[in-house]
Amino acid sequence: MRVWIVASVVLGMLLASGLAYGQPRPIKNVIVYKEEGRFGGWPANNGIWSWDNEIVVGFTLGYFKLKPGHAIDPDKPSVRRLARSFDGGETWTIEVPSYLDAEGKEKEPTDCPGGFDFTGPGFALLVRMQGSNRGFSRFYCSTDRCKTWHGPYKLPNFGRAGILARTNYIVDGKHEITAFMTATKAAGGEGRPFCTRTTDGGKTWQFVSWIGPEPSTQAGYAIMPSGVRLSPTELFAMVRRKEAQDRRREFWIEPFLSQDNGASWRLLAEPRINNGGNPASMIVLKDGRIALTYGYRRPPYGIRARLSSDNCRTWSDDIILRKDGGNWDLGYPRTVQRADGKIVTVYYFNEAADKERYIAATIWDPGVGSGMAR
Question: What percent of the chain has pLDDT over 70?
Fold first, then answer.
């Protein structure tokens, strides 16, 4: 009887703390970068990397201007910045990337010599696009945890008018990476996602497959895929979607599964998430579960997450990390897991529509999972 009472008390404590049965709970929100009159935005366009409790995230730094659309002043310069934390996202410092010159500009890309060791202890890959509707993309490699960068190097155009790539990749071997990118549609404009792969340390990149069909309308797009590896042959990707027809616009993210290492993809029924237009970020947790995070551009504006413990076949309900956003101009998260198992989700945010946009992070506990060992 005494054993049963003790077990019941322990279970009650776990339930109260939100850690039993995989129930997560937010821990704290911290400011990564915030300055009056400035616009800090779009970590999903820039990438995140981590080594235990050292985390580096990229973001765009511009000037705040209240106007329709994103509140960034198009008539003033915007530059790339890196934020670095040595304590698991609790505190941050801001750095100027080494690939920028004194005027904040990047060099023209050249051919990559290849041979990069993607499994090296300080390796990071950064993929950058020229614009969201045109131009081509480039990539950089770092071997010292983003302190210095090699590049820029050219990415092929894969037969399209533009490659609109962001940083999202899986290291599959010493010289092999599977990456998820977006190309312009056949008639131009964004976009259609695809899977590409290098097996020679970045020297050449092979087109593997399109992820899903081309959007059915010229105003629609399928962009910003986020992918994870479920097994040696299974890949899972979430794609940001928009369709517009007869003055009606829909925005959502939708799931695709590949069971032949990216050669082909099929659309799954769940989770289709009507989040108002924001990309997903996914990671494989240490216990084998998948964590999915995304911005929520519908009232109440904020940041949300879901968890899967069965290789993305089913998902938890929405986990509301925060719901205090001032308007829709927020999100674009990137997520990592730190050494103690807590999750760090970094995004851009605002608490009032007429205030600056800034970079924030939520540090949260994903609870105790029953995921598969990998």
Answer: 91
